[in-house]
Each structure stands twice: as structure tokens, then as C-alpha cells.
Amino acid sequence: MSTGIYAGSMQFVTINLLSTGASIITTAIMTLMVNIRHLFYGITMLEEYSEAGWRKPYLIFSLTDETYSLICSTDLPDDINRKDYFFTVSLVNQLSWIAGSIIGSVLGNIIPFDTTGIDFAMTALFVIILLEQLEKSKQHLPAFTGFIISIFCLLLFGPNQFLIPSMILITIALFIEKKSLERSDF
């Protein structure tokens, strides 16, 4: 899974989708929603990757949060080939991810570990990210909108079917709110 699905959060989501028997359409929409941020990363890298030749498809596939951060924040000396650097960082990041997954799998089968409650870890992670964003941002309307729409869809569609309608409605609402958010400090 770490080789084909090179997106950490989607690997966790995929396990849940597979175990609940989600449809291919649900899986595709969920994958798009979870990883849509990569589209924005990719747009900013169009010019950089345009001359990458045979490396370009792999660079596009392997553009993760960590890789993007490294390739955008590093000031390279003039004698370093940027395309080689991009490729090397992307490859090392993915190989590290795969190696970590394999080591974790092997050790997980050797060392007894009670996974009770581990499914809560992703929820806790996203709550912490939300709280940090609320502290840093003056605009709380997007978070409030997402919360209200999620609760509404949970009540309307139930716990097994609310996620995709929530994501679609949140996306629509945020596009509608965009103009007022740009003008205010709400």
C-alpha cells in the first residue's frame, strides 16, 4: 500500500474504506477530497517540473507535503542541478516511507501491541490541527461552516454516509464564502 498509495492520511482512510466495503465511487471521491491539496502544490510546481523530462511523471506522483516543503524551502547552490535535486528528494522521501512501513509491519508482527483506540489517533490529529489553525487565524467562519455542515449531514445521512455529502457541501459553502472572507477579519 505504501508503494501505490503514497499519501499517509489516505492509507488510513483506505483501510477504513476497505473494511466497510465502500464503493469504488465513494473511494475515488474520498481520495480526491483527502488529497486535493496536492493539486495546489502541483500548480505551483508546473514551471519547475516542465523541463524535468523522463522524471516528470514520477515527480508529479511523489509530490507530498514533506517533499514540497523540502524542494520549495531549500536554496540550492548554482552548481546543483535542480531537476536532479527534485528527483532525489522525491525518491528518498518515498523510499523512506516504504521502508518505514515495512519496518513497522515487521515489528508490528513481532512486538505485541494493543491497537485498541488507535483509530482515534487520526481524529485527535485533525482536532489538534484545527485548534492550532483557530489560534492563528482571525477568520473562524470556515471552521464554523465545516462543523455545522458536518453535524447537519451526520444527522441527515447517518454515520456511514455523511462524509462525502459533507465534503461537497463544505466545498460549495467555502467557495460562496470566499468573497466575504477576503474582505473581512471574521
Question: Helix and strand layout, with pairings?
Answer:
Elements: H1 8-20, H2 24-35, H3 37-44, H4 46-49, H5 56-61, H6 65-73, H7 82-110, H8 120-136, H9 141-157, H10 163-183
Helix pairs in contact: 1-2, 6-7, 9-10
Summarize the structure in words:
The chain is mainly α. It contains ten helices and no strands. The protein has helices at residues 8-20, 24-35, 37-44, 46-49, 56-61, 65-73, 82-110, 120-136, 141-157, 163-183. Helix 1 runs antiparallel to helix 2, helix 6 packs antiparallel against helix 7 and helix 9 (141-157) runs antiparallel to helix 10 (163-183). The radius of gyration is 19 Å and the shape is globular. The N and C termini lie far apart (41 Å). The model has no long low-confidence stretch (mean pLDDT 84).
Number of strands: 0
Quote the average pLDDT.
84
N-C termini distance: 41 Å
Quickly count the helices: 10
Short characterization:
The protein has 186 residues and is mainly alpha-helical. The protein has ten helices and no strands.
Question: Keywords, please?
Answer:
186 residues; mainly alpha; 0% strand
